[in-house]
Amino acid sequence: MVYFVPLGLATFSLFKLGLLSDEPLPLWGSLVFALIVAFCVKVAVTAFSDAPTTYSEALYGCLANYTPVDKEGYLRLQVVTREKGHLDTAEVLSWAQTEQRAMDSANRDVAAAESTAKADFLGKGV
């Protein structure tokens, strides 16, 4: 029902501005019409979009889709968020730093294994 209000306003403005009659549309009328159409498009896109409307909603979505390296830190972040009822900025930053250290450690382990395998391959005589 709410989405039909801008459509009704646009139709009324078309009639009022002379688009539905034989008179030519003045310049100011074209500008008003463009603003009304832009408003209607924005309302329609916002109403039917699945995009998050707040930063918190976007962050919750990212955290829900993320597979953590530091699972204990992720669980701690979930517990703190449940207790407080919202994401705590300090807690999120603390978890992100811990996660970064865990990722760096995992990357070093992979690089060390690759360099050992590379040395074995290059040193192998045929």
What's this, in brief?
The protein is mainly α. Helices cover 76% and strands 0% of the residues. The radius of gyration is 29 Å and the shape is elongated.
Strand content: under 5%
Kindly name the structural category.
Answer: mainly alpha
**What's the helical proportion of residues?**
over 70%
**Average pLDDT over all residues:** 78
Overall geometric form: elongated
Number of helices: 5
Order of helices and strands: HHHHH
Annotation, overall tally of beta strands = 0
Question: Biggest β-sheet: count, sense, barrel?
Answer: none
Compute the gyration radius: what is it?
29 Å
Low-confidence segments, given as residue ranges, are none
Structure report:
The chain is an all-alpha fold and 126 residues long. Helix content is 76%, strand content 0%. The protein has five helices and no strands. It has helices at residues 4-17, 27-48, 55-65, 71-84, 89-123. α1 (4-17) packs antiparallel against α2 and α4 (71-84) runs antiparallel to α5 (89-123). The longest helix is centred in the last third of the chain and has 35 residues, at 89-123. The radius of gyration is 29 Å and the shape is elongated. The mean pLDDT is 78.
